[in-house]
Amino acid sequence: MTATPARPSDPLARHFARTVVLAIPIIVARAALVVMFSVDTLMVGRISSQDLAYFGLGVAPQLTLMLIAVGALQAASVLTAQAIGAGRVQQVGVVFRTSVAHALAMGVAVFGLSLLAGPFFLAIGQAPDLAAGAATVSVAFGVGMPGTLLFIACNLFMESTGRPKTGMAIMLGANLLNVPLNLVFGFGWGGLVAPMGAEGIMLASSLARTAAGLSIVAILVLSALRMDTFRILSLEGAQGSERPGLASLFRGPEAASLRRMGLPMGLAQGVESAAFATVVMFAGLIGTAELAAYQTTMTLVTLTFMMAIGTAGATAIRVGRAFGEDRRLDMARAGWMGIALGGLWPVPVAICFLVSPETAARLVTDDPVTVAAASQALFVAGLMLSVDAMMAVALGALRGMGDVWWPTMLQIAAFWCVAIPVAYFGGLVMDLGAGALIGGLLAGILVSLAGLLTRYHLATRDRARNTAALP
Can you state the angle between helices 164-187 and 12-47, rounded to 10 degrees? Predict the structure, then answer.
């Protein structure tokens, strides 16, 4: 790492303000992606509770696979931030091209796995009718995965290089496109196609996300043709040496670094997502009403959680730049301020869940049975939102400094040794409903947060010293 002239570190307030400025457009972009799924869920809920159950079960494994891939791609954001901080500008373009190639490969792989959704649902004990309906939703989801991950890879690059508003604008546009597509494919609006229910609404979402991926690629290429600062259109290596084009995207040193860091990051994301998906399966085993209630709850929770995801991304970038510049005290301060901000964002929503969970449930569905079950789950979720957000940002802070394997081990222990057993016992053994399922997740999140905060404290305590501030 390249040392920089020492000057006093930034005060905590400035770290807080800079994280907010960077986090807001990232939050909006992430939230826009989830809003698309939320709008889909709202529209499916207006069709029938049965379609909502199909949608919830069909999305669960696919969303887990998508989040694993997104977690792995976030390694590119960390590598980019560290390279910029260390002044290795040429390496940034290599990392970008490598991440795009890996994004497309993972997108195709997830689509292939979606074709096996039907047998998978039957194998885990779901009813044949529920498995068949959910499988069509899973395949429709898979269709959009290459385009979705292409957008993610390009947007992570733009965020890491100081242009987070572009992806935000594109995703907002994709949401506007998604609504009429939902009406056409889901409800048969205009008579263009026969109403396809939950499957059609997911297909519409996949088309909108693919359009977002193609749009951001077009913008990046046009921008690079005018001024290619990071040489993203070049096939040169990080040190200026020529390497075989496509082969280097999977066999070069940057590809190895991306996979070495991305593997544990993807696993950490996958461990948590798989735990949430497993709880979806628990809900399906309890009954259709509980599954619809759980899906209602997680739709609202996931939308709120995007504030944490955006803050985690901003925190990883700021910690990564400080790490690359060897500014260790600022690295610690950027991380702790990000964690504090992550805990503050969800407080208003948590209060709403605690005070009036029925009102929140009716935003998704008007089915009385589903509303009653979801209200219990939303109340418990209100206790979970801030600690879940702080956990996500703590992961981002550790990733920014390249610490990826210990957090992954902590996630595995917290979710699979605590969250899943507690959720199973409360939801299925004690028959306490969807609220007990959310309570199990809360128990795992609390254990994870305690471990991650301890890890970050130990990782930064001995390294922090009065060095130069973040730019």
Answer: 10
Q: How far apart are CA 218 and CA 212, in angstroms?
A: 10
Q: What tokens does 273 get?
A: 């997502």
pLDDT at residue 177 greater than cutoff 80 = yes
Q: What is the pLDDT of residue 104?
A: 95
Determine contact, residues 280/125, Cβ cutoff 8 Å.
no
Could you please report the per-residue DSSP string of 83-120? HHHTT-HHHHHHHHHHHHHHHHHHHHHHHHHHTTHHHH
> Would you list the domain boundaries of the chain?
12-461
Residue pair 385/301 in contact (Cβ under 8 Å)? The answer is yes
Q: What is the pLDDT of residue 236?
A: 67
| Contact in structure between 216 and 148 (CB atoms under 8 Å) | no
More confident residue, 438 or 290: 438
Q: What is the pLDDT of residue 276?
A: 78
C-alpha dihedral, 232 to 236 to 239 to 244, nearest 10° = 130
User: What is the pLDDT confidence band of residue 466, given thresholds at 50, 70 and 90?
Assistant: very low
Q: Give one DSSP letter per residue of 317-338, joined into a string.
A: HHHHHHHHTT-HHHHHHHHHHH
